[in-house]
Amino acid sequence: MTWAGPATRSPAGCTPCCGLVPGGLAKEISAAQAARILAQAAPSGAVAQARAELAAEFLADLRHLGGTRTKLAAAVKASGTTLTQVFGAGPVVAGTIIGDVTDVARFPGRDHFAAYNGTAPVEASSGNRTVHRLSLRGNRRINHAIHMAAITQIRHRHSDGRAHYEKKLAEGKTHKEALRSLKRRISNAIFARLQADARRAAEASVTGPGRATGERLCIQRGRLTPRTPALRASHSRA
Known about the structure:
The chain is mainly α. Helices cover 53% and strands 5% of the residues.
């Protein structure tokens, strides 16, 4: 048995199993199929045995990851966020963004949020030529999450993101420029969702301490704060 050459990565990522089958695997396989292959394999020699052990460890890690993804999806759903309504933003993308942003109120606007996640382009002009390049600053985890959402939108022809991407290409933009534009568009959509979620959470909490004490509350920048009464003339001193 020899280790197969470049093969299609399976949904379970069990590419190491290819080396346990003569000629490799011609199609993608699931984790259950990979487990059956490992159970039927009879490696001979130290090298083949090492490959089998590596494949078994890899499969165990993937199954653990699958359980983690299930828990993450449940946690994201329980949070009540609407981030998953953004096309291409699944539980992993939403969980990454929620975990790193924590409080959207710390961003005065969507431009500040774009600068934070690295989707705001950096101007690199020279003379009369105005050029914008990719920003390498900002939170790279959120930037990667937005990038994955953008790639998902581009791959689906019916999505608004694909239409936006093709529009930019028709305007003469390069692939990278069109992708940067789409990522900024997604960043704005995510920021709007985060703000809406914060407002909804603040409104839901109005039935708490504020109502019990009779204190008037208002929502400022996504946070629930006591309403400050206007200063009356009788309060001022001569």
